């Protein structure tokens, strides 16, 4: 199967690796199917690409690589929705906001993307009883550090 993407042009994907978001994403409830691609040239960056809408794509990271104390408690409701049986089948990402040509990058730790990798089911979870915010500063590139002087 081939899809058009925001960052990679036309890409051949494996249909069985499409991730289904039954409720869509907040603000994009009609978008149900996404595919994860690596972002070329990005240090541990990924793209959550809509299968149906080429221009709809979100840059993401594995938050545990950059925020060592980060912890996500997955509710029973989310476990049931995603049919999670074992924590080993869970993958968590944080969406990034990138501004001013890489001078400002923030990670949304309050709204992680939770995926059951075995069943390819996903949901953006809002952590309401936490100290996490939607914008935690993140330094990925040398240009950011130089630009913040």
TrEMBL record:
Keywords: Bacterial flagellum biogenesis, Cell projection, Chaperone, Cilium, Cytoplasm, Flagellum, Translation regulation. Its main location: cytoplasm. Transmembrane segments: none annotated. It is found in: Cytoplasm. One of its GO terms (biological process) is bacterial-type flagellum assembly. InterPro entries: Flagellar_assembly_factor_FliW, Flagellar_assmbl_FliW_dom_sf. It holds the Pfam family FliW. The keyword Cytoplasm applies. It comes from the Bacteria. One of its GO terms (cellular component) is cytoplasm. Acts as an anti-CsrA protein, binds CsrA and prevents it from repressing translation of its target genes, one of which is flagellin. Binds to flagellin and participates in the assembly of the flagellum. PANTHER family: FLAGELLAR ASSEMBLY FACTOR FLIW (PTHR39190). Interacts with translational regulator CsrA and flagellin(s). Belongs to the FliW family. HAMAP family: FliW (MF_01185). This is Flagellar assembly factor FliW. It comes from Niallia circulans.
């Amino acid at each position: 199967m081939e899809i058009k993407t925001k960052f990679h042009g036309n890409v051949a994907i494996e249909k069985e690796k499409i991730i289904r978001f039954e409720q869509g994403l907040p603000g994009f409830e009609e978008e149900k199917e996404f595919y994860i691609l690596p972002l070329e040239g990005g240090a541990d960056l990924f793209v959550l690409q809509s299968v149906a809408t080429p221009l709809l794509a979100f840059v993401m990271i594995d938050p545990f690589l950059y925020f060592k104390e980060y912890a996500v408690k997955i509710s029973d409701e989310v476990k049931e929705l995603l049919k999670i049986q074992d924590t080993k089948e869970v993958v968590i990402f944080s969406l990034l906001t990138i501004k001013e040509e890489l001078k400002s990058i923030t990670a949304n730790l309050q709204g992680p993307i939770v995926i059951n990798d075995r069943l390819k089911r996903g949901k953006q979870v809002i952590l309401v009883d936490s100290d996490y915010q939607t914008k935690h500063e993140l330094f990925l590139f040398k240009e950011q550090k130089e630009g913040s002087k």
